[in-house]
What does this fold into?
Amino acid sequence: MRAFFAITLLFILSACADEVELGTETSFSGSTMGTTFTVKVIDLPKTLPADEVQARLSELLKGVNDKMSLWVKDSELVRFNTSNSTEWVEVSLDLFRVAAEAQRISAMTDGLFDVTIEPLIKLWGFSTKSMTRETPDESALEAALKQVGYEKVSLRQEPPALQKSNPEVTVNLSAIAKGFGIDVLSDYLESQGIENYMVEIGGDLRVKGTNARREPWRIAIEKPDVTSRSVHRIVAVHGAGMATSGDYRNFFEKDGKRFTHIIDPRTGQPVTHRLASVTVLSQTAMTADGLATALLAMGEIAGPKLAEENGIAAFFLIREGEGFVEKRSSHFDVYENQVK
It folds into this structure.
């Protein structure tokens, strides 16, 4: 599970607007992956009909769903999850690429990012199929933990295949597949000669070039507020994927204690640190998507440390009293300076 954010696209007006030759913005939208997508293209080529672009975007997203969705009954991922075999299961190159990136992030974060975590999500009531909102007993936790662990899934590149060491292990790619879908649409746009665009799915996005005012795309990072939606900071983004993950939309309280949907797969318990949200900028939306979740799980000390050591452009909002304090990696600062 992931907490997804409504990221607002802001256009900052120029004092010399009459001197700017404005571009023409064409928008496309629809539903996908249990949420919505929006694509904004600046100066769509005249040889590329808008209705054909809309159809192709929807077709590409359907292809991603058919491979990685847990809701498409015969998707590749569902077939792998429901298989009782511990033999190699051949998969598409796309599914292999996403699983490989997920495993890389898992190894980098000492298992705090883990695509096999679904049994724990269900146990704590954070799955859409199981909204019990109850604290599980120790025996149930122990049983679920036997099915969890990224090292229980192996990858083979040629031909692409996945293998699980325990037939009960399942894989949930929801914390990274959305970013991959964004990259698929972005790559399509670029293949058509489009150099200025924004692709957004469920709040995560990837942009290139400039907006219709010939300015960098400016994206708002949401304030981690349970009661309302407001902007904390605006970031100018160019040629990158951007994803935000937070713990303040999906949680429950019991006996005066707060339980977030961000679960440590090593202990089976929701995390208890003060980190409220993480925003990551990366070359691809897939990597930004996975890293945002991973760094959030790591907390306000280990997360920034890992980002700094691994060249990750990350922005952290940490609870302090009634408000929040910012922390960011030096790579985030360098990136911002380059695009302003």
About this structure: Residues 1-18 have pLDDT under 50 and may be disordered. The first helix runs from residue 50 to 68. DSSP finds eight helices and 18 strands in the chain.
